[in-house]
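User: hey, got a sec? need Protein activator of alkane oxidation PraB folded
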Amino acid sequence: MLKRASIAAATALAMATPAFAQTFSPAGSSFTMSGYLSASDVETVNCATTLYGVVSADGTSATITGGSFAPGSGPTSGKCGVIFHPNDFPWTLQPGSASTVNLLGIGMGYFLGHCSGSIFGASWTNGPPGVGAATITPVMISGAYGGCLVHGALATSPSLTITPP
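Assistant: Yep! Here you go:
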């Protein structure tokens, strides 16, 4: 009877333990993400983007503490940083797998409203020797007029790496 209880307890513990535990390296480091984010709601804006963050001490996530938008490319990019800006900080960046990340709790404000939500499964390229970078293929997050279609590419400096378990 005791042996069956021990096996059942071990099985329950194994099922409760996550099957993956990728981490960011270097843990505990500050970093900058820069590149561009584009969002489409009533119109499309392409913004040069700078985000600031710190990797947790155990590397399981990173906190984006702040950031800014500046004019990027296209006829409406002049709205970036003036009318259209990132908000709702902090955001959370988590490894999803060895080649994907999740960006949770993002927010973008503009004169007509606000878009917020999470992006799951953004493509991730490890660095070094390259640069740790996220590529966000078009994804819809909730917004004032039915949602915002967001996409972009952001590279980290210093370079971050997702380390497998």
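Quick note: Helices lie at 2-16. Let me know if you need anything else on Protein activator of alkane oxidation PraB.
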